[in-house]
Structures are given as structure tokens and as C-alpha cells.
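QA checklist item 7 of 12: single-chain prediction sanity check.
[x] sequence parsed
[x] length recorded as 121
[x] structure emitted
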Amino acid sequence: MYKTSLGSVMAEIEDLLADKFSAKGRDLNQKVKHAGRKLPSKFRKQVAYLIEVEKRYQNPKRAHQYDPVRVLAARKQCVTYLEKIDKRAARSHRRLAWVTTVAVNLFLIAVLFAIGVQYMK
């Protein structure tokens, strides 16, 4: 493939997934599954194509059955998306969501407690 090999493309995306999403797994497929719904569907489709190409590449008879231009385009889209992600903003968003959930639950418990006190009188 032009200037990059298929292995380096896969390794680059795996490293970015591990860095940005703390994705765990031994290969790209497992790391994408670990990141799950945090990834947009377009990204998952591009990675699915790369995983399919990797499976084909491992079979000597089918190793030539892929489009190197499409592989490089998929790599570019995936890397561009992953490099745009701000880890700090994502982490603060998760904290805010957690705090909001706790606050809503505490509010509901207080309302139920107040209703229970009124009902007991």
C-alpha cells in the first residue's frame, strides 16, 4: 500500500483508541467493541472495512482483494476523528453526567421522603 502498510494503519488506530477512550483488547476489533457507542457509526463502518481487509490480507489467495485507496481514506477519516477528541472535555462531561445523575436521584429520594412524611400524618 502506497506509503503505509496495513499493519501500521491498524496499529495507529489501535493506539489512538487506547489513548483517547482507554479501549482495552488485543486487536482493533476488541478495542472498537470496548469503546462501543462512544464511537459514531461512520467511524465503526470504516473500522469494520479495515478489519475485513486485515482478514483478507492474512489469506495469501485473497491478500490482493482490497482497495489501497479506500484503506488510506478510511485511515485518514479514523485518525482525523480520533485526533479531534479532547480527553479532558470528555472526562469532564462524564463527571458532569455522573454528578447530575446523583443530584436527580437525591432529589427524587427527598421528594419521596416528603410525600411519605405527609402520608404518615
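[x] summary fact logged: Helices lie at 6-21, 28-35, 41-58, 68-84, 87-120.
[ ] second reviewer sign-off
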